[in-house]
């Protein structure tokens, strides 16, 4: 918990995603953005041109050890998350760290424990959880309108952005994994993953990931940055209704399909025992707000109030456990791995 009207925030990382955080943070009245950091002074200088009032430094220690900083936003490469988050929390700073929480479960567990011992907010950047359409999806799932959830599948495809420091499982997978765990409020018990490294040896650019959840719920993630289509879609199939979130649509991103299969009493054969239901398609109104802005505001509110985040350390650790098991399955040629 932070006393006072404003939370004093520093941002570490001014690369691809960092400037978007800075843009949102400067617009939040309860934030005093006191400094930004990047080891690349060229990137740092470019950001400071747009925000000349900010203090910039290439030295992470300057922000981490500053008495004038309450919380740090860490928007750096995944391989640095553990070290930077640990140093920041050891110095008494609340931490927002981009996904994934870390690259190893043991490291993630250590970060969660440090946050718990020191009474600090540790939040992971699972952005889609803060998307208004996903929030509405959660309401439909929890209300029981879809019935029992049977399966979920997601498609996150594009031609690029191609990375060399992490495969598409670790780069893109956390988005849809976090949503699936959020919607189901369950952790998968088994994962099996097939993928190929067509562009760069050892860096998979296409992944097919199968998950088994309790109560016979299954899920699939199709992830690729080598695809002719740009798709960001999640489909939830219940035994009463079906739900589709298509983030590529400019409007009507969410659609409820009143479709399903019903059993017929008094049938004479299997063919007569099943009735297909084709009902209405509803596109509920969703007030669109920038998910990143909502995510930033949520973090600041959690810091001010000392409350747990929707994507807190524990949630980030659950996603990390799936990712680590999925990577083992991938390395073993798709062999199922228990979680």
Structure description:
The protein is of the alpha/beta class and 339 residues long. Helices cover 34% and strands 29% of the residues. It contains 10 helices and 15 strands. Helix 4 links the parallel strand 4 and strand 5. The chain is globular, with a radius of gyration of 22 Å.
Given as residue ranges, the uncertain stretches (5+ residues, pLDDT < 50) are: none
Main β-sheet: number of strands, strand sense, barrel status?
A: 9 strands, mixed
What is the subunit organization of this protein? single chain
Fraction in beta strands: 25-35%
- Give the overall shape: globular
Helix content: 25-40%
How many beta-strand segments? 15
| Strand order within the widest beta sheet | 14-13-12-11-7-10-9-8-15
Mean of the pLDDT scores? 94
Determine Rg (CA atoms, Å): 22 Å
Describe this structure in a few short sentences:
By secondary structure, the chain is of the alpha/beta class. Helices cover 34% and strands 29% of the residues. Helix 4 links the parallel strand 4 (71-74) and strand 5.
List descriptors.
single chain; about 350 residues; alpha/beta; nine-stranded mixed β-sheet; six-stranded parallel β-sheet; 10 helices; about 30% strand; globular
